[in-house]
Each structure stands twice: as structure tokens, then as C-alpha cells.
Design a protein that fits this description.
The chain is of the alpha/beta class. The protein is 38% helix and 15% strand. The model has no long low-confidence stretch (mean pLDDT 95).
């Protein structure tokens, strides 16, 4: 129990993210995560309010895509429009930028020069760069951090080869909405590998594990064998997060069913094996869809083992009938459309706070 003054100070505390880069939620405090979500909820409730309509009036947000994404482009463009600004799309492959691949030498503008020039034109830069645009795991994240080093405006991670903060925040927002708009602390998340023909990167999975462990969920991580071990530093950070919040962290190898018992949220998604960069995409897909992986799919039968109101979540696009059956993906357990919409709202909140200087009075 604190004094009246302490309580009033806590209630009136304002969270300020002006000028901040958003590269991973792990680098935000829990209060900053809560503030983004609180503003996103308000913006969703009052979507077309005049309160937000001129925050970025006559201002530009640059979107630099090394990898394409229909939802990411649409949601950021819509967010900029609804804030009164403009989102400028740039296909990095068609610009005179130096290659970000260590194995490729190319003429063009350096990241140093590009970042500094873009910062003269815009109030923020979003960058999307996944594993297919770099030679080694982590190189995409290094590119974002290099832009952040030289640009004196916010860099927003629109997904790199390690992290996907906007997706993680949208996931949490959807989970909260289906928990009567309450925090999800104490709930159980099953993060399970699934077969698939897309050789998916780690970023959405990492972000889900990191943000939900920060927010006090019990985490179960399930996958077939050692080939699908996630990077050690991520696992250690999730363990540390769970320890700090008092949550449970469990790894289940080889059993595609056990993790469903008593789960509140099921996130069934493919991710590539740890030697992906050596064996390549074709070999990865062959391994992922082999006969011994056929039971690694989210089904109605498995969902029956979970809690009665268990929700299915996924960042999309869904590899239906590999990662999850149609009955689950399009049925009552699925909240993927709400989560997809929430990308717009969390991104509006991020842009408002980092680029327009909106401060959030965190509710007690």
C-alpha cells in the first residue's frame, strides 16, 4: 500500500516516446508497451475522431521495403492517412541502394547517406527486411540498427529477420480484446511449430514469445526436434522474462499434442530450421512437409484439449491445411482477423507517440 501522493503520481504518469526507434518490444519498458496498447485501444474505439486527424498533417512517413507484404503496406499507409499524413512506398530492390548482402558488391548509396537524406524528407522511416534479403541470420536487424544510427528520426521495424514489434503488439491487443479487454497475465500461450510450405522466418514467433513473457503469460514452446531450436539468446531472454514475472516457461519437444492441455491461446505457425541459411528454401520445405511432420497441425481435436474459450492466433498469411485446418482457422476459435486489423491501430499509436509527440497518461 502506497501513500495517497504515490498513487496520484502513478496515475498521472505520462509515457513519452517522441523520437524513439521501435525495433523490438524487448527494448521497451512494460509501461511503454502498456501505453502503446492503451492508445491503440482508444484509437480503435474512436477511429475517425478529429483528435487524431491532423497529428501528421503535411508530414511524410517513408516505408522502405526490402521484402514485400500486403498487410504491412496497407496498414501503415492507412495509419498515415488517418493521422493526416502520407506514407511513401519505396521498393529497395528498385533503388540505387548498396546491397545489404555481404556476398554482393554493388554501386549505390550507402545506408549512412540514405538514412540522413530520408531524415530530411520525413518524420519517420519504416523498414521491412527479412531473411531472403540478407546472407546471415541477424543481418536484417543490423541494417535497421544502422539506419537508426544515422537517421535522427524514428526507425520503425516493419519486420526484420529477428523481430516484428508491430505484430507482437497487435497479437496482444487481440488477446486482450477477447479477455474482456483485460490484461492476459496468468493465461497460458502455446507457441507451437507447424508444418508448412513457406519456410517462414523467426520474427513473429520471437516477438510473440518475448512480449507475452514480459506481460506475465505462461509460455509453452512446442516443436518436433533439435532442428527447430530457436536461437539461444532469444530462449534465454524468454526464460529471464518469465522469471521476472513469475510465469512458467516450458519447452516440449517431439509431442505435437501435449502443449494444448489447458492452453488459453494457441499460436500454430511454421518456422524454418536452424540450418536454413545453409540448406536453402527447397530443402527446408521438403523437411518441413515430410511424413513425420504431418501431425504438426492445429486441429479441432487438439483444440478440444485446450480451455473451452481458447483462441487461435496467427500473424497471417495462414498456410491453411498445413499450419492449421480450415475449421479452426475460419471457425469460432480464430481471432486472426481482429489481430490483422489491430496492426493498423497499434501502428497509429506508435506513429502518434514517436513522430507526433503524443504522450499517454497511463491508467492505473
Amino acid at each position: 500500500m502506497g501513500s495517497k501522493e504515490e498513487k496520484e503520481k502513478k496515475i498521472s504518469k505520462k509515457i513519452d516516446l517522441i523520437g524513439r526507434d521501435i525495433i523490438t518490444t524487448q527494448e521497451l519498458s512494460v509501461e511503454e508497451i502498456q501505453a502503446i496498447l492503451q492508445l491503440a485501444f482508444e484509437m480503435k474505439k474512436k477511429r475517425y475522431s478529429d483528435k487524431w486527424a491532423k497529428l501528421l498533417e503535411r508530414k511524410t512517413f517513408i516505408m522502405l521495403f526490402y521484402n514485400p507484404s500486403i498487410r504491412t503496406r496497407q496498414s501503415f499507409e492507412a495509419a498515415a492517412t488517418e493521422l493526416g499524413g502520407h506514407a511513401q512506398f519505396i521498393d529497395a530492390s528498385k533503388e540505387r541502394l548498396k546491397s545489404v548482402r555481404a556476398s554482393v558488391k554493388s554501386a549505390g548509396e550507402s545506408i549512412h547517406d540514405a538514412a540522413k537524406v530520408m531524415a530530411r524528407y520525413a518524420v519517420g522511416i519504416g523498414i521491412r527486411i527479412l531473411e531472403t534479403s540478407v546472407d546471415n541470420y541477424g543481418d536484417g536487424n543490423k541494417v535497421l540498427r544502422e539506419y537508426a544510427k544515422y537517421a535522427d528520426i524514428p526507425i520503425i521495424n516493419m519486420a526484420d529477420d529477428i523481430y516484428h514489434p508491430c505484430q507482437g503488439l497487435a497479437d496482444v491487443m487481440g488477446m486482450m480484446e477477447h479477455n474482456n479487454n483485460k490484461p492476459t497475465r496468468g493465461k497460458t500461450l502455446l507457441q507451437t511449430w507447424a508444418k508448412g510450405a513457406l519456410a517462414r522466418s523467426y520474427c513473429s514467433v520471437h516477438e510473440s514469445l518475448l512480449i507475452n513473457s514480459r506481460l506475465g503469460l505462461n509460455i509453452r514452446l512446442a516443436y518436433p526436434d533439435d532442428n527447430y531450436d530457436l536461437p539461444e539468446d532469444i530462449i534465454e531472454q524468454v526464460r529471464k522474462n518469465c522469471k521476472e514475472t513469475g510465469a512458467k516457461f516450458e519447452i516440449i519437444k517431439g509431442d505435437p499434442v501435449a502443449g494444448y492441455e489447458g492452453a488459453d491461446y494457441v499460436y500454430s505457425r511454421n518456422w524454418f530450421s536452424k540450418d536454413f541459411y545453409k540448406i536453402g528454401k527447397e530443402a527446408e520445405i521438403k523437411r518441413s512437409t515430410a511424413e513425420d511432420k504431418q501431425n504438426w497441425i492445429c486441429t479441432e481435436e487438439k483444440m478440444k484439449r485446450a480451455n473451452p474459450d481458447c483462441k487461435f492466433i496467427h500473424p497471417m498469411p495462414v498456410d491453411e491445411d498445413n499450419e492449421v485446418t480450415e475449421e479452426v482457422n475460419r471457425g469460432p476459435p480464430s481471432i486472426i482477423m481482429d489481430i490483422a486489423e489491430n496492426r493498423l491501430h497499434v501502428q497509429k499509436a506508435i506513429m502518434a507517440m514517436t513522430m507526433a509527440g503524443v504522450k499517454v497518461k497511463l491508467e492505473d
